[in-house]
Design goal:
single chain, about 120 residues, mainly beta, seven-stranded mixed beta sheet, four-stranded antiparallel beta sheet, about 5% helix
Length: about 120
């Protein structure tokens, strides 16, 4: 049974920063894709960023490039999303994703497993 445990999120003013974390089990984490997606109110879920755990290859959606950074702590089986220069359009529920085991697709389309989601609200 795969579990993804998210933490972080909250409310911040425009221009602020937040950091999300997502931890999973070792077997699931190994040689796999870890990603972040988000769903804004009234919109479809969209990709944010992805990272492949064995080589660190990353993907970022155009809307977050230069502002968000995805990273790993392999010893803790954890993926992070550092979000800087947050904008009101970043307001959404953020979901951690696991899989698929495909470097080219990692973080771009969907995931095999999902975390419970964490709310990020950017507002003045």
């Amino acid at each position: 049974h795969v579990q993804l445990v998210e933490s972080g999120g909250g409310s911040v003013q425009p221009g602020g920063s937040l950091k999300l974390s997502c931890r999973t089990g070792g077997m699931a984490f190994s040689e796999n894709c870890m990603s972040w997606f988000r769903r804004a109110p009234g919109k479809e879920r969209e990709p944010v960023a992805g990272i492949y755990t064995d080589d660190g290859r990353t993907y970022y959606a155009d809307s977050v490039k230069g502002r968000f950074t995805i990273s790993l702590d392999n010893a803790k089986n954890t993926v992070y999303l550092q979000m800087n220069s947050l904008e009101s359009d970043d307001t959404a529920i953020y979901y951690c994703g696991l899989g698929p085991r495909n470097r080219q697709a990692c973080g771009k389309y969907t995931a095999n497993y999902w975390g419970q989601g964490t709310q990020v609200t950017v507002s003045s």
